Amino acid sequence: MTRVWMLPGLFLLCGSLVAAGSISDGKPVRTAVFLVVFVLLAAAHSPLVFPRRTEAAEAQRLSAADGRPIVYWRPGCKYCLRLRLRLGRRARQLYWVDIWRDPAGAAVVRAANNGDETVPTVVVAGRPFVNPDPAWVREQLPPSA
Question: Which InterPro entries match (predicted)?
Fold first, then answer.
């Protein structure tokens, strides 16, 4: 569990150190800017940005029933973040499996990528696609209601 928060924590720690140095120079505006930037970086790389995570077995069962894609991802992955942000609200229509929290999800990704944990790996109709274009993933979603 702590592994997923290491990068956001590092951003907050670095931001605090930079802000402390900046405030000691007597530059409050620059300090505020640094803090905001580092807090935003920490939030963007945290699991909080992603929709509710699903266990791999549950995601596979639900996907088989309704045909929605499964996204295998991990915190700190810039390609996962890009996919999530480009999908916008429609990202909630996918099943998100955090491979750092779900060993079965990590095994699925390794099986699809010759032993590598390359993410995002999107599984559509049982077929894996590694780092697909977000526009293509959006096309795989059912029409929004």
Answer: Glutaredoxin, Thioredoxin-like_sf
Q: What residue type is assigned to position 120 of the chain?
A: P
Give this prediction's pTM: 0.72
Q: pLDDT tens digits for the chain (145 residues)?
A: 567 678 888 888 888 888 888 877 787 888 888 888 888 888 877 777 777 788 999 999 999 999 899 999 998 889 998 999 899 888 889 999 999 989 999 999 999 999 999 999 999 999 999 999 999 999 998 776 4
Q: Concatenated DSSP letters for 45-67?
A: TSGGGSPPB--HHHHHHHHHHH-
Domain 52-139, what fold?
Glutaredoxin (3.40.30)
